[in-house]
Amino acid sequence: MNEQDDILAANATYYEAFASADFGKMSHVWADDEVTCVHPGWPVLIGRPAILESYRNIFGNPNQERIEPHNAMAMVRGDEGRVICIELIDGNDLALVATNWFRRFDGAWRMIHHQASPIATAAGVAAPQPQGRRLN
Amino acid sequence: MNEQDDILAANATYYEAFASADFGKMSHVWADDEVTCVHPGWPVLIGRPAILESYRNIFGNPNQERIEPHNAMAMVRGDEGRVICIELIDGNDLALVATNWFRRFDGAWRMIHHQASPIATAAGVAAPQPQGRRLN
Known about the structure:
The structure is a homodimer.
Chain A: H1 3-19, H2 23-29, E1 36-38, E2 45-46, H3 48-59, E3 67-77, E4 80-89, E5 94-105, E6 108-121
Parallel strand pairs in A: 1-6
Antiparallel strand pairs in A: 1-2, 3-4, 4-5, 5-6
Helix pairs in contact in A: 1-2
């Protein structure tokens, strides 16, 4: 796999951990320090304890909606890289744009930042667009 | 100045460019490539042409609201770093949390990513909190 595949795989692992409410897996996705997280509508969470606590709460919510990633796009430079994707929220028309930033430690990409922002309804989500165009 | 001061100064320049609708200054804030931008409610913009066009449109809007940055917090590692701050929107209670990611080129920090997400009303915005706590 090339670097882009590697970081996209790390991004997929994040959403797998989310979908299966697997706290151990989510805990491993996140790096040990210098981590920040902005859930939709939330203030920023800084540091691993606050971030992991937020996922523990989310995973404990029986009404948590399913999130499906789409149109993931990666940019990698050296040992840092970002993946930007659309998150479709199960059961309604809400779409989010998520930025997932990773850093490579001993060959493994781990998340150092997540931010998801609501955008327009999912109706317009389409195939990835060329450089310089909106993703949907 | 230390690295944190440098990147916070670059962040301040972004908001100065915005406040003065100075397209030339904004154009210089942004790096030449590998740039992404998520304005509130917008899909992601990828690449310098799309991003600069968005600022040209924003600056051309006579009703554009004023944005005041607060509580800026920086994390720097090597030649990359992020600043996270609260954006207060003039004239209403809306607050956003913005992530501004910079990369250092020849000693100058330039923006490679901006994302602003709406959060709760501005009423709760307070002084910066210690590591691991919410910013507001």
